[in-house]
Amino acid sequence: MPQGQPEVVPDDGLTTRQRRNRPLTIVHTGIGKGKSTAAFGLALRAWNQGWPVGVFQFVKSAKWKVGEERALRVLGASGEGGTVAWHKMGEGWSWVQRSPESSEEAAVEGWQQVKRDLAAETYRLYVLDEFAYPMHWGWVDTEEVVSVLRDRPGTQHVVITGRNAPPALVGAADLVTEMSKVKHPMDSGQKGQRGIEW
Amino acid sequence: MPQGQPEVVPDDGLTTRQRRNRPLTIVHTGIGKGKSTAAFGLALRAWNQGWPVGVFQFVKSAKWKVGEERALRVLGASGEGGTVAWHKMGEGWSWVQRSPESSEEAAVEGWQQVKRDLAAETYRLYVLDEFAYPMHWGWVDTEEVVSVLRDRPGTQHVVITGRNAPPALVGAADLVTEMSKVKHPMDSGQKGQRGIEW
User: Fold this and answer.
1) Which fold has domain B21-179?
2) ipTM for the complex?
3) What residues have CB less than 8 Å from A1, skipping those under 6 apart?
4) Is A41 on the interface with B (CB under 8 A)?
5) Which whole-number Å values give the CA distances from A108 to A39, A115, A195, in the listed order?
């Protein structure tokens, strides 16, 4: 990516500094690889800036992304950059005492915590991994998500990943990338392998 | 990404284990964000497996990706995962004594080193960042790259990023993802910001 020169100067009454520090809502969607991986790559940049990073994994399986999790935990504990908090739905959210009765309930509990953290400005970067699914399935109301993100205080960046990102979310987001599958080894019978898929 | 069940079982005479450990050539291309970021995310998984990781940045500017570089250097030095070697064309490759006369010469020198490292099996994961460009521009011969990758020894995974990945490379790769731009803040005059763009 070359150094970004804006194509137009917006007429929004903001200074360049204000515009530069605008909180961003970022969406990685599509059926290709790299949606989550790129989100965790962004977390490296946030860590380097010394920002507190909060990861919320909206997936039931804890098998995947163990590499990213361990790396970000080691970085967060290194004292050289920002802190990292890693929350996993698959193991039960740490702030919930009892087991949720369904994935839907668990997803809603995750979103409630994200709302509390946004209100408290707990993190500077939020990785809401696979959060597109609960919206797509109607478990979490997309309009509410859009509204909460629009009104969030401070400069908190939010990255949401997952296939089937709802159109209303895409419409409200600042930066949207679609990852398309051109070719995948599983198409020709290759199984997932460690170090690559997890 | 759900757990991958292959759609077909290939008739290639390989055992599942052999197939599982097949070295992969991965390409991230397209005009959207996340090509390099996802590649560095993959490097986290490799690090977690204890693999030696070699990064070759085929870009002249050293400004970008400072976050990923620092994070991976800290991880590589942590003793908890694999090692990380980070080579930057922008600052002059460390193995070249004199300054290259052109970007083309520098890119060729980078590729020569990658070839030596592949032959020596120096790394288990190679991130050839922005390496699609020197191929696209004809500085490095794509057919030679394809041939060297096809014949590389051992189980060395290679990730190549950059817009305009040559068709011959895409054809030879095992996993290709195209990152498409759906929406970008620079379109509406937003400038790049730290923690997000670098």
Assistant:
1) Rossmann fold (3.40.50)
2) 0.79
3) B33, B36, B64, B197
4) yes
5) 22, 11, 31
